Amino acid sequence: MQETSLIAPNKRRLVLLVLSAALLIASCTRANAPAKDLKAEIDEAAATLIEQPLLHSTSIGVVYRGEEIIVHRGDMQAGKPGPPTDATLYEIGSLSKTLAGSLMAKAVLERKLSLDDDVRKYLSEAYPNLQYEGEPVRIRHLLSHTSGLPNMLPELANTVLADFTDHRTPSRLNAIYANYGKADFLKDLHEVEIPRAPGKKYSYSSSGTELTAHILETVYKTDYESLLRDFLRDSAGMTDVGIRLSDAEASRLAVGYHSDNAAPTTPMPQLPWGASGNVKTTVPEMMKYLRFQLAGGPVVTQSHRTLVEFDSEFSIGYFWNIVSGDRLKGIYYAHHGGVPRSQCYIYIVPKYDLGIFVITNQSGDHTASAMEAAIDTVVERIAAREAALARQ
Questions:
Q1: Taking a C-beta distance cutoff of 8 angstroms, is the pair 213, 220 a contact?
Q2: Is the pLDDT of residue 183 over 60?
Q3: Per-residue model confidence as pLDDT tens digits over 191-204
Q4: What's the first-to-final CA gap in the chain, in angstroms?
């Protein structure tokens, strides 16, 4: 999973659009702003996005003050007509971590565990290495990427990912994880060296999320994927979401491209638990997730709670990046997801009761910044609407 900084997104000039006559009638309110106009603007942002080099297609989903808008643009496979659809299953990469964070928030609220628990409490073997000068790695450190655990286990995967755009990267990852299971992960965990006091320094760790899944399995005595499916069904009404796909589901999985390789590449290999980057779902299902986040129930509120503040603009909750100081967006919650053939973003922007999900079926060095530009455009359009409506 490629890490993308959300601390200082690019700033772009705010463009105030002239609203149509339909928006100027006295009865117009924020709740009934014509969806067709905003959808056209989102579609325009999607069209601009796929004009970027190497991008084949995109899907953008928006929930704005209770209204849902989904647009699909481009062709999934180069030279072969066929846009993504509402039935397309996407790999959402590290957005999977926010789902794990929600499950952990639920466990904390149910008093199944505590944020300050030593992670070794939930491991069946002794791990004297999971501490630094007597300070143990705690659950809160996993959630805030301050544990000191490496990004990936086994360590070899980090070497491969260091040159992410190398055309050999997907096949090398496939080879590393071909027979790498939970027992292998727990064995390798014995060899980890914690380099500093936990809780101090941000260092992105997918292995920390995998360990989070193990802890959840331990306290609930159920496999992680079942926990996840049941939770998302019961809390958000999500039913077309999972980690391991059936043959029928696999046939709907989006084709994807790695870096500048013209040939489609293979899916992200299966990680031991899959909590850090293996979730697959559709855009309509992500709309349900956006609604769940915007509703702000107890689990969401807990998962958005600041665990570590790194500076005045960047904090982290239960795997959520919390960004403040943005004049246009206000305080917002976001996460990037990346696998070798797909990248995506999720933004939760309470200022506008707004949720945005954008995904492409290409993964390269410039994919994230192109998606950020599309997101900024959507937010600018919505901010312009809000400003015009406020003047009425």
A1: no
A2: yes
A3: 999 999 999 999 99
A4: 46
What's the whole-model pTM score?
0.90
Does 6 or 354 have the greater pLDDT score?
354
Q: In terms of CATH architecture, what is 21-391? A: 3-Layer(aba) Sandwich (3.40)
Angle at 106 between CA 324 and CA 234, to 5 degrees: 110
> What tokens appear for 188 in the block?
């390798």
Task: Give the domain ranges of the chain.
Answer: 21-391
